[in-house]
Write a structure and sequence with these properties.
The protein is mostly beta strands. Helix content is 9%, strand content 54%.
Length: 278
């Protein structure tokens, strides 16, 4: 998972930019093709939530985080594009930083230092998905996804790494029974390395079930696992559940909780928010 030690920073940046263009702008390219009338009336969605996580991440000190993302998504024919601008507040001893919208232990060993609180703009995240296959009788949904993390957070405050991350993956969904849908996502992310730091690139896998409980209420339960970006630290593993309620006029309310299953994850997390389609 480690990079080749002889790779030059400039060459690595070029590789990341090219991968980002392939993963994200491929999705955007559907704009350049003639679209049917229905596609021209594309949908938009705005969403936001408040997410609180707490844990020790294998260290002696507790880290508390509040993450508030503001996301604008554009739905296109067979594709979607989104941008997320987050606000982040974190109380920690500097051993945990935010990578790709999640808290990650970036140091080794058990050390105890003074805890401080910092807040500010988090890393902006661009995301795109292109539908490779749509569900039908005996079929499934499959999408090619790309994401780009822009280093807009202050790394000196522990709100980010100060480097760009680029990822690509596949998103799968299959309705196997009325009201029951199997979900599976897999991503590979190239993690940007600050000077003097050696991070592993990251493989993440998600497996979940979506259950339509009623006409307006749904439940999603998922399991997530990742390798650690720091060799020797445990990889993040967690299980989460989200309950959503659809109200008229395209508004959805949702809330959830997560339980960490390893020292690489928060011990517990809770969240709540809403989305509006227009």
């Amino acid at each position: 998972m480690n990079r080749t030690t002889g790779q030059k920073p400039a060459e690595e940046n070029i590789m990341k930019i090219l991968l980002a263009l392939v993963c994200i702008l491929t999705t955007a390219s559907v704009r350049a093709e003639p679209q049917p009338a229905a596609a021209q009336a594309a949908d938009w969605k705005f969403s936001t939530s408040v997410n609180f996580d707490t844990g020790r991440y294998g260290s002696e000190d507790r880290t508390n985080s509040v993450y508030i993302p503001f996301t604008l998504k554009r739905y296109l024919t067979n594709a979607d594009l989104s941008v997320t601008v987050p606000y982040l507040r974190q109380s920690s001893s500097g051993q945990v930083a935010w990578v790709g919208g999640k808290p990650v232990r970036v140091t080794k060993g058990r050390v105890s230092v003074a805890t401080s609180s910092n807040s500010g703009l988090g890393d902006i995240i661009l995301h795109g998905t292109f539908g490779l296959k749509r569900d039908g009788p005996g079929s499934f949904d499959l999408g090619l996804a790309g994401k780009l993390k822009l280093p807009t957070a202050d790394e000196k405050k522990g709100l980010g790494t100060g480097k760009m991350d680029v990822g690509t993956g596949l998103e799968f969904a299959k309705e196997f029974s009325p009201g029951w849908t199997l979900l599976a996502d897999g991503y590979y992310t190239i993690i940007g390395e600050p000077a003097g730091v050696n991070f592993n690139n990251q493989v993440s896998l998600d497996l979940g079930i979506y259950r339509l409980l009623s006409e307006r209420v749904s439940l999603t339960v998922s399991y997530e696992t990742q390798n650690s970006i720091v060799s020797g630290n445990p990889g993040p593993r967690s299980i989460s559940g989200t309950l959503a309620y659809n109200v008229p006029d395209g508004v959805q309310l949702f809330g959830g909780a997560a339980l960490g299953l390893s020292d690489g994850s928060p011990e517990i997390g809770v969240s709540g928010g809403f989305s509006q389609r227009f």
